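Internal ticket - ligand job 265, iron/sulfur cluster:
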Amino acid sequence: MQKKGRQKGQENVNMAVEVISKGENRAQFLITDTHFSVVNALRRAIITGVKTIAIDDVIIYNNTSTMYDEILAHRLGLIPIKTIPELERSKKEVVFTLKEIGPKIVHSGDLKSSDPDIVPVYDDMVIVPLKLGESIDLEAKTKFGDGNEHTKFTPAHVFYHFYPKIDITKENVKNASQIAEKCPVNILEAEDGKLSVKKGQLSRCILCGACEDFAGKDIIRVSSDNKKIVFEIESWGQLSLKQIVDEALDLLMEEAEAVKESIIK
Ligand code: SF4
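stdout (structure tokens):
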């Protein structure tokens, strides 16, 4: 699947996007014929501009666990919370309560929400272990925010790299399997002394150069094609991949419009 960008007076406005892989929370795209600054703008918009819900204000009534109040509050803030963007306009406050007595391991799933739709993304994140007789009793208020304010609001892990180029100049080498074992992402294979990149796995190369360092440039050469960019995104679960990318692109468009208008004035 490949989508071409529009031609607009300039021959070089011809960006194309191809989906390499796409799951529920993780996707990898191949973006060609663009400058990395464009891709970086999208990455930054996702990391710093897309809003999510997170715990922001914790009132601790009781805490006899071994964890300091501040650390407990910090851990609560980092729990990804399912986010409904429309809720921001309604200004509805969502509050979690947590009242537990040990012995038990307190998990994110033990948080009780005032809104059944706004709950932790994962139920099994450990908050604090309680020994016999230890207890906690707290209230945690949430709010909308973005990564500019605090990284706990960031909706995804996003990064990009140039498309790898691997030239295997000598296929039949004595230590082919040792070279393949050096690859941290396991995309090289050795069969009957013949070294190759596994079919369909080239885009997963992280350009670390470990194979080249070990084998030498006369056997394997690693470089990159700077006109092709692999863009990867992994949602923390507060929002879907589509919501994250849509929202980030809207933000970029708004900012571009603002610049355009202020220059025309
Ligand atoms: S450069 Fe690194 S990731 Fe890429 S094939 Fe070589 S060892 Fe593997």
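Auto-summary: The two ends are 41 Å apart (CA to CA). The chain has six helices and 13 strands.
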